[in-house]
Design brief:
The chain contains nine helices and eight strands. The chain has about 300 residues and is mostly helical. The chain is elongated.
């Protein structure tokens, strides 16, 4: 995410509400590996809700009793967040464009009516598009910037300038050069349909790199462990074993939380990177004297995921 963003970036109250509802109630940032509680259907970032449940076993939003066993990946939310992040700046640009003073271009009512498609009665048609305005005298597309709201809900700016097209010698339709030969073959047989552009072949990969996510840590009853037992357990997971008992417990609990949140992700990081991030997080806690708090603030959350992603 580039810079600092906020729902109030938008002028529309509807877009403000949408942007706000795509954010974790705990850290107020966009969901990062969204997890949903089956007990109440509230969603949170994986790291945020696991830290919260490690401190208090209830939903931090509605206080419904909950456990980490009630957590499930909210993949649909992850997809929505990904699409929203990609389109957010464009929508802000559209808002700015919509508020800009219109250019003085005389036009008749009939020409204005032609700019819009009639709203379809079928609910299956969810796209509203502006037609390109053509110059009737010259038959050329006017160079103008317009907007389009596509069926997938992503608004994009585009310039209604014809790309470099070629003309079919049979039916005189214009199309991309890549489909001309295929079209001509069909056109000679009476089918003047313009075929879709061919899909570019993906570059073959050598396979996804194997990630060492490490050994899954077990949950323990800390009061039953002495200092030496905690140090031994930390060493088993290649974690630092310095500090008093409170620090040892905090470190292990935080590692369990971070490990599980990492495994929640569709793109987990290597265990060595996770351990480095644990050390960074602990230093931040120590610096701010936050290691006694039950939940981290936004700065801790951001540092964690900016380094992991």
């Amino acid at each position: 995410m580039d810079g600092i963003d906020d729902p109030l970036d938008f002028k529309s109250s509807h877009l403000q509400t949408l942007d706000e509802n795509l954010r974790c109630p705990i850290c107020k940032e966009f969901y990062d590996t969204a997890m949903i509680l089956s007990t109440c259907s509230h969603s949170f970032c994986a790291i945020c809700i696991r830290r919260s449940l490690a401190s208090e076993q209830c939903c931090p939003k509605c206080r419904t009793p909950s456990h980490d066993s009630n957590l499930h990946n909210n993949y649909d939310m992850d997809n929505v967040i990904h699409a929203w992040k990609q389109s957010r700046k464009t929508i802000l640009d559209l808002e700015a464009l919509d508020r800009s003073p219109p250019t003085d271009q005389p036009s008749s009512q009939n020409e204005q009516d032609e700019d819009f498609l009639e709203a379809p009665s079928s609910s299956s048609r969810r796209s509203a598009r502006l037609r390109t305005t053509t110059s009737k005298s010259e038959g050329k597309v006017v160079n103008n910037t317009r907007w389009e709201l596509t069926s997938d809900g992503i608004t994009t700016l585009f310039s209604v300038i014809d790309p470099e097209l070629v003309t079919c010698p049979v039916c005189q339709q214009r199309m991309q050069m890549a489909v001309l030969n295929q079209h001509v073959d069909s056109c000679l047989n009476g089918d003047s349909t313009i075929p879709p552009l061919p899909v570019k072949a993906s570059i073959p990969t050598l396979g996804k790199k194997t990630i060492n996510t490490g050994k899954k840590p077990v949950k323990i009853v800390y009061d039953m462990y002495k200092d030496k037992d905690l140090r031994r357990m930390l060493k088993e997971y290649d974690l630092p074993d310095h500090g008093d008992k409170a620090q040892l417990i905090w470190r292990y609990k935080e590692y369990v939380t971070m490990y599980n949140a990492n495994m929640d992700s569709s793109d987990p990081v290597d265990i060595s990177q996770l351990i480095r991030q644990l050390q960074t997080t602990e230093k931040l806690y120590s610096t701010r004297n936050l290691h006694k708090r039950s939940a981290p603030d936004t700065a801790v959350h951001n540092i964690l995921f900016l380094s992991l992603n």
